[in-house]
Design a protein that fits this description.
Layout (H helix, E strand, L loop, with lengths): L1 H12 L2 H10 L4 E2 H5 L6 H14 L2 E6 L2 E6 L1 H43 L1
Antiparallel strand pairs: 1-3, 2-3
Helix pairs in contact: 1-4, 1-5, 2-4
Length: 117
């Protein structure tokens, strides 16, 4: 289940227009027309991008009268952030072990050179 959520989240964030929308919404809620204003795309295209963002759980919207207001859903961003942090930690541990090995190998080589003199 979590893998499917992450897949939808990263898919939604893979598009620069959707990332721009999430970035804008990270500053606070905005109406669809406010989101569309800086974008060089049509309003129907903005709505399609919003559907992807809502489907991923990154954005939620509510309609009050004739205005649809969108906001970021921090839970999904946190889920993606944790996944990335876990990968980073794994690679840092691997690189630390590699550095330790290289340091030990270098010390052994230095000792061998000293002994051969």
């Amino acid at each position: 289940m979590q893998a499917a959520l992450l897949d939808r989240t990263f898919h939604a964030l893979s598009d620069p227009t959707r990332r721009a929308m999430v970035q804008r919404l990270s500053r606070g809620p905005a109406s669809v027309s406010e989101l569309a204003k800086p974008l060089a795309i049509s309003l129907p295209a903005v709505m399609q991008h919003l559907q992807v963002l809502e489907g991923s759980g990154l954005v939620r919207s509510e309609k009050t009268g004739r205005v649809r207001t969108c906001s970021v859903e921090p839970k999904m961003l946190t889920l993606a952030e944790h996944w990335i942090a876990e990968r980073r930690a794994q690679w840092e541990r691997k690189l630390d072990r590699l550095a330790d090995y290289l340091d030990a190998t270098a010390s052994e080589n230095d000792n061998a050179k000293e002994e051969s003199k």
